[in-house]
Amino acid sequence: MTAPAPVIIVSNLIKQFGRFAALRGVTAEFSGGKIFAILGDNGAGKTTLLRTLAGLSQPSSGEVKIFGAKKFCDVCQQVGYMAHPSLLYDEMSGMENLAYFARLYGITDIEYCAEVIRAVGLDPGLVRPVGQYSQGMRQRMSLARALLNDPKLLLLDEPFSNVDLHSATEMVRLLAGTRDQGKTIFIVTHQASLLEGAADEFVWMEYGKIVERTRDLKRLEAAR
Q1: Radius of gyration of the chain (CA)
Q2: What is the distance, to the nearest Å, from the Cα of residue 221 to the centroid of all Cα atoms in its chain?
Q3: Among candidate residues 143, 194, 198, the one with its CA nearest the CA of residue 166
Q4: What SS3 state is found at 3?
Q5: CA-to-CA dists, residue 156 to 101, 127, 142, 169, angstroms
Q6: Which of 42, 44, 123, 170 could bond to 205 as cystine, CB 3.0-4.6 Å?
Q7: pLDDT for 63 beyond 90
């Protein structure tokens, strides 16, 4: 049986910021229906790689193919992105935020928005503005926004930052269920232990390169 084509193909990806190279010739293929945990020290290139996959940062050279497409605009409706900042409107409630973003996707079903909010462990009936949410609540609402269009590819930058252990565990459970539906998920995180048992592969980056890919987190951490 022929193996399915990779969901993402990255070829000799280079990203320069002036004289600094954030990505240094990254070449990799990633198959679908998996959770990839992107790990590495600060400045390793993790977020730059994620932003490049999300079409938010154009490479200096090299190529990215997502679902076989070279142009991100051809697949943008199939991608969900969660940045490290929440990118929510502080003066609006969670439901108002999600209803606004839903309209950008042509989604008008308010009950669907409520279901997405419940899926991340929040109450859609909460009327106070997002600016008064705890950081953990903001992270979960930001995840709801990324899930809103039912993406085939989900790109998450530090989704567990300042989230309590119980909530983070519930988020991992939700993401594992999303993966089990055939979706592909990239998670940049400094909290790799949360993904042990859920991630299909841990990808270690150093100095703008992918230097190791493994399923064995303990062995990877022992080697660093």
Answers
A1: 17
A2: 22
A3: 194
A4: coil
A5: 17, 26, 10, 15
A6: 44
A7: yes
Q: What is the identity of the amino acid at 62?
A: G
Check the CA dihedral 191-143-174-28 and report its sign.
negative
Cβ(150)–Cβ(79) below 8 Å:
no
List, for residues 180-208, the tens digit of each pLDDT value. Answer: 999 999 999 999 999 999 999 999 999 99
Contact predicate 93/130, CB 8 Å: yes
Give the amino acid at 218: K
E strand map for 4-162: 8-17, 20-30, 35-40, 61-66, 79-82, 153-157
Mean pLDDT of the chain: 93
pTM for the model stands at 0.94
* Alpha carbon distance 212, 221 (integer Å): 11
Q: Do 184 and 7 touch, CB atoms closer than 8 A? A: yes
So what CATH class is 8-84+151-222? alpha beta
